[in-house]
Batch of 3 targets.
Target 1
Amino acid sequence: MEKEARSRIQLTKQWVEKAVIGLNLCPFLKIPWQEGRVQTLGGPINDLDSLARQILNDLNQDKFETSLLVLNESPVFSDFYKLFGHLEDSLAQLGLDQQFQLVAFHPEFVFEGLHFEDLANLVNRSPFPTLHFLKK
């Protein structure tokens, strides 16, 4: 499982370099990526709250500018989005939603009201379920 997790992280990094940065989908990511200020780590769903606390602590201490958490498992999109909603609610309950933002990426990402094939969905599609933690 550890080898698979490392492979998911490596493939996600390649996606960031080729798609997100290469296609300039997020112009704000290029410089922090080149400067090594983007944390990319993997972890299991059952440890999501602990991993989120670690990431938020790292961002708070300015160890990184932004963090990508690549999940070791691949839940279906609806289950993944429930996890994402749980983390967003947790941020709000802790009063951290003004300090941090979460963005969800998933291979099956679909914006509400759009069809799966709609090109607008590609903005949030990634090779593996990934949570992006941004410091505002």
Note: The mean pLDDT is 93.
Target 2
Amino acid sequence: MRTHTIALLLLFIAALHAGTPDAPSAPPTPDPVTEPAPAKVRELHFETGTVTIGNHIATIALPDGWRYLQSPDARYWVEKLWGNPPDPSVLGLVVPPAAPEQAAAPDEEHPEEGWAIIVTYDQEDGHVKDDDAKSIDYTALLKQMQEGSEAANAQRTKAGYPAVRLLGWAEQPHYDATTRKLYWAKSLQFGKNPTPQLNYNIRVLGRNGVLELNAVAEVSDLKLVAEGAKSVLTATEFVAGNRYEDFKPGIDKVAAYGIGGLVAGTVLTKVGFFALALKFIKVIALFLFALGAGIWKLITGRREK
């Protein structure tokens, strides 16, 4: 897919450099060595070490080599450099190291390549209890989500958008009841593109909501993304007062769903997936893709965003 995207980009650049009637038929090619990187990218403020998410909601003790962009710069990266629609819910962007063994990682000079983790915080529905964590049949849940995705595809194709199919778990959901942290990954296929895409999801349960960290890459990058995402997950914590154990019964709002609803109800309905997926496919209609979430929400009572 990246090769195809690059090819399209080269054709676009070639069109821009095509000569006019008064111009030479073969204009000189700019020297790539002296071609500067986009000025704005050079101005982005990357943070390292322990960083704060949002208005002191949580912190991430970034592993060595990792960097963080706060909301203004994160939104610039996601919306301008990756071409996504504006979204004020983006709190930050966690950028992996650009080491040789992680050549796919984005950097200042090549923001269109690689992967990163978008950070958002969902507190609209309230505190998510984990009472159902041990009883979830993820095989049955996956089947339900797949059936929902196929039903939604009829609407998408009718509207002129490519079908999106849930191929399966790239990594089955795993919930740690001690740390109140959840992760899972899905393998997805867009339209006729033969290359499966990876949607990697991280959730940290808190007092009033859920911290969401999402990344999208190619399925072939699963090992790289999984290792990086889990290292970030381990280093992410709510601050005192926002932690799961700080929940006050009878005072704080409680979500109408648990862990199962969190997994099913957020499939492709959050900015994390949409924003990164658009880096690869610009024509996905997010509002058309329920992927079974509607069925699950009828059971759990979860509201649409």
Note: Residues 1-39, 99-106, 266-305 have pLDDT under 50 and may be disordered.
Target 3
Amino acid sequence: MRRYRTYLILTMFLLPGCLSAQALDISGLSDQTQLSILTAGPAEPLYTIFGHTAIRLKDPGQEIDIVYNYGTFDFKSDNFYLKFARGNLHYFLSKSRFEAFIRENRQLDRYVGEQVLNLSPAQIRHVARQLEKELLPENRYYRYEFFANNCVTKVRDLLGKQDLLGSCQLDKPSPQSNTYRQLLKPYLAHRPWIRLGINLTLGAPADIPANDWQRQFLPDPFSRSLAIADLSLLNQPLVSSNQTIVEGASKTDVTGWLTPGLVFWTLFLAVAGTTLYDLKNAKFRLWIDRLLFGFIGLFGAILMFLAIGSLHEPLHYNWNLLWAMPTHLIVAAGVNRLHVMAWFKYYLWAALIIDSALMASWFLIPQQLPEAVFPLILTLMVRLCYGIFTSHDRP
């Protein structure tokens, strides 16, 4: 992972910047120039999990072969992770040599495919001119949004502009009606803990069905849309040829046995068994509540921050806050003193009723909750019941 992080910094920040100051002579492009879309598949590092999209401009006559990349960001930015979480991290357009782009992806052992666009020399110059304009310091930066403004959608929007491609149709109707969360599912199938973290963080907006245009926020759906698109005024396909530049490794991800479901069901059985034993023997293991309520309360505080303080709309309206209540931190901090206060029992009852209602309406709420947290909520309910029925018996 350390090697991947070092390589990410070099390739995503230093290498793309080495060509950014060199303006391209658009008028000098020959009629042999080709414009193509590069699609890179997922790889092992987390930042590559959903793949990548870039634009290649190749002019054999002028020995020009460069890649325009909207997925560049500055790792040295102040408060990088806070900016990313809050949604005000700025990505920017850069360009690099094609050889550097391929070298990066070969090292990551990821697939790279190329779709050459069926455009006239005038259209290619038009697109190249627009890309060079966006490379200017005053134009190159944009606020990253996972579903709506990323390295794929920037390319999609560029090609979808009427003044660039006429009546090119990139949003042909599809019989499928998937939500954003469902579109992410195949990429997370073999990474259960990452899948859990992403699904817990994403709120109700992630469960809105994406139309044919919106689902192209991922490289693979966008590539498939290009493959069936056509320049309707000319009755010609948009893509003139396809090729695989880098095969990538053919390997099967191993999920592993320590899945969230196994961990949380084991936790539930252990806590339920211990709680039943303590009820029978009038024992009070308050450290269990400190750990359980403290962990869930802290996680709830993070979700609350993202739901309220982040500019990422998909993180808003998160129904997981119904069980991951930030106020549980109060319980964790004062569990050995709060039982003598009258309001504390009402709080426990309220939390228990909310959790019970959430479990009963699991498939009715407008957000798909991760099944893995089902036993975690049950564990919480066990301790809520324990607190309710032992609050007056504690020393």
Note: The mean pLDDT is 86.
